[in-house]
Design a protein that fits this description.
The structure is a homodimer of 472-residue chains. Helices cover 34% and strands 26% of the residues of chain A. Chain A is α+β, with helices and mostly antiparallel strands and 472 residues long. In chain A, the strands form six sheets. In chain A, strands 3-7-8-14-11-10-9 form a seven-stranded mixed β-sheet. Chain A has a five-stranded mixed β-sheet with strand order 16-15-17-18-19, sandwiched between helices.
């Protein structure tokens, strides 16, 4: 079988660039850097991913909304830290037709400042709480670093949930629910990840604290796929989001958000893919099974009839399948569907038909098996489970073998992956570690055990462990 | 039952404004005029409408893509008529962070100029044709007229299909397919409409010809919901979209587009709604059936058990239903669900349960019927058909009774609806009719019969009939 020009194990970043194009996920030739065209295959995968998070939102009583893209500058500037954090990274609309706007509008980098003035109108009393909404939209960020498909782009396909609560404790319960949602979501995508409580100096602009969800890419760099923020009443005060409680008292809401971007698809490409292309978890594959007839002269009808039987059996069982009847060699078809990550291939040749069997080929391991034609649906469904299990276990092994708990900076040197180092909690010590290791601080583990060691930078008693890694 | 403050038959436009808010479709208090917040109910209806067009696209082998929102000015300016038509109506991004952009970017008003440079890379040979793609995206238009929810807004939820063909004839076949798609689509939404071939001076900027789909609102004004454009090779030339044919010759593609906007939801509100709220065709209702328990002391469990039985029977039959167990009076629940347009209400009281029956109430006619509990699924499904039939027939009667074929301008005067007048084909004569009648030209019927009359303005032999109406 043909393979990618660049090998994943040799040059991960170049392999990634090659494979996102070969698998027809996106086209990077659009004339604005970092604004790519989603091709049909990539967009359908993204929509399937969106479908999973929509299911999670429904399960947890979040309602879907859509807020405007454009935000007046005056609204944006109400929360001081927020504007400081984002001000340099937004795009500005200044003109409409021939007219200069009275006030500049920015393209949302995220929607706090569009939503919260409206939340203050929606929320009147404690009976309006909790308010739980989400949207899936295009957002914009003026990236000056090198762009990379799905991973660092300037128009970003973005999921954002926003909630309002009566007090800090109820907002904390939301954070607990968000963590459960994240765990279920990434598990379905076969992506093991870690939560990190982001350090104070690198939390979301305006947040009380930020938790990130990070995956490890095979390059040894981590990729932040999403984050959960506890805002306390930091935004409620400037945006005046208040409710009347049971005693007639007016109180500020406490708020949270949960955001994830198209980076999820980048992680799926990077973590699961190989030198034959991308490998899709069955749950998000637009085509879950491709059926390829192996035609010999005089046997066409017999083979195609069997293929159609397989196709309709799979469709009846709600398995998305495609019968590839195009005039081309089976080999070239295999190659193309492997590139696109289709989890299972069914091969049907005249000899199989005579025996009443078909051959199933797994995309993840390449393994082939002969099964009875009448068992094809249950065999395929079992295979989906096996594939999902294999994908997540392979990724878990990578994560575990790239995770190093060390006692000092020297031990951390040269490690490919995530290092966990005793830490006093001070920014300057973490920055020193960052500089020495050429890594970035991911943050603390959420449920940090006692750390009996000393901070290797200042020598004082460590307060906790801190994680560092090279990042995207 | 409570009713809207403003009556539909007395002041349609004010009733419309009231009902879109009461039915929780959108919130117009966002601080940029014409950029509204989609509330959960409105957004879910819109997504169901999008689902219907996606189904039509799948049926006709269109693939879904997503192109960037921002378009460099130089790309936009390649097609001279297009820039002339849209140049004054677009929003301009001029700055990123603190930096002035080297070239201005505009927010897409529609995506021809974003897509076509990329199509020229995608299309190499005749085997790449036809290319049929679509996207559902936010678009922007700098509206200076008075805005109105869904009908005239500045951020527009927009569907656009774009196709490329080997020649004019194949593009014409696409137009025929588009007309079939439109007919099926609007039929599902119970919206009778008319096709109009738009006059030369009012076709889409850059098109060879434009066909509009117009519905009649109860105010007597027509609302254009979408359009189909034949571009010929007008865009292929400036954007260099060429293919190599079987003989090695390089030829320009011929292109078409099909666009529809969120105005569809405006038409559903306007055409089907009444003084109790909106009325949704069952096919797009987020909640198709609401089940309301009528609780009496001591009978709670009996009633709720029966409600749950109805609920689970409906869900098993893929009918979206909601069991309203909130602590409130049945009357207030009826009011709320009627406002939101839920097609069928099931009322379950203790006497019904004793008799083994439930009561079905139709949203469209208000009619109530007692049915056996065990028949509830099939009765509800029959009711859905009856409701859809009634909605479309009522709307057809409105359209037909508001359609006037007249021989001269005097006869057309004061008519509420659409008038069809003999016409020589010259712009100045149509403009004269527009001025006298205070109407706008919709265009010619697609399959215009011979017209044996004379143009009432210039007196010359009429070439065809022309339709005029007051429009939104």
């Amino acid at each position: 079988m043909p393979e990618t020009k660049v090998k994943k194990e040799e040059d991960f970043n170049e392999w990634y660039n090659e494979v996102v194009e070969l698998a027809d996920l996106c086209d990077k030739r659009y004339p604005i850097k970092g604004m790519n065209v989603w091709r049909p295959h990539g967009w359908e995968i993204m929509q399937n991913i969106d479908g999973i998070i929509r299911g999670e939102m429904r399960r947890t009583n979040h309602l879907e909304v859509y807020f405007p893209l454009l935000i007046p500058e005056s609204l944006f500037q109400k929360e001081a830290e927020h504007i400081e954090g984002f001000g340099g990274e937004v795009y500005w609309v200044t003109h409409a037709g021939e007219n200069k706007l009275e006030e500049r509008w920015l393209l949302r980098p995220t929607s706090e400042t569009a939503m919260y003035p409206v939340f203050s109108l929606w929320i009147r009393s404690h009976s309006d709480l909790p308010l739980k909404v989400f949207q899936i939209v295009n957002t914009f960020r003026y990236e000056t670093k090198q762009t990379r498909a799905f991973i660092r782009v300037r128009e970003i396909h973005f999921f954002e949930a926003h909630t309002c609560h009566r007090d800090f404790e109820d907002a904390e319960r939301q954070i607990a629910e968000d963590k459960e949602i994240a765990t279920r979501f990434f598990n379905k995508l076969c992506l093991p990840f870690i939560f990190n409580k982001r350090p104070e100096w690198d939390k979301f602009a305006g947040a009380f604290y930020t938790i990130s969800m990070d995956v490890l890419m095979p390059s040894g760099r981590t990729l932040q796929l999403g984050s959960i923020h506890q805002y306390r009443d930091n935004f409620a005060k400037p945006y005046d989001i208040k409710y009347e409680d049971e005693n007639g008292e007016h109180k500020y809401c406490h708020q949270t958000t949960y955001g994830m971007s198209e980076r999820v698809i980048g992680a799926i490409v990077g973590v699961h893919g190989d030198n034959k292309g991308i490998v899709l978890p069955p749950v998000i594959a637009p085509v879950q099974v491709v059926i390829v007839p192996i035609i010999f002269k005089g046997k066409e009808k017999m083979v195609l009839d069997a293929c159609k039987q397989v196709h309709s059996a799979l469709e009846s069982a709600s398995v998305s399948s495609y019968l590839d009847e195009r005039e081309d060699t089976p080999g070239r078809k295999y190659y193309e569907w492997e590139l696109k990550g289709v989890p299972v291939r069914v091969e049907v040749g005249p000899r199989d038909v005579e025996k009443g069997t078909v051959v199933l080929a797994r995309r993840d391991t390449g393994e082939k098996r002969e099964v009875k034609l009448e068992d094809v649906v249950s065999e395929v469904q079992n295979l989906f489970e096996d594939i999902s299990r294999n994908l997540i276990e392979t990724a878990k092994r990578l994560l575990e073998s790239s995770f190093f708990r060390v006692k000092n900076v020297d031990e951390a040197r040269g490690k490919k992956g995530i290092v966990e180092i005793p830490w006093c909690g001070r920014e300057e010590c973490a920055v020193e570690m960052e500089n020495v290791l050429d890594m970035r601080t991911l943050g603390e583990p959420l449920d940090a055990e006692e750390c009996d060691e000393n901070c290797p930078v200042c020598g004082e008693k460590a307060k906790t462990w801190v994680r560092l890694a090279k990042t995207y």
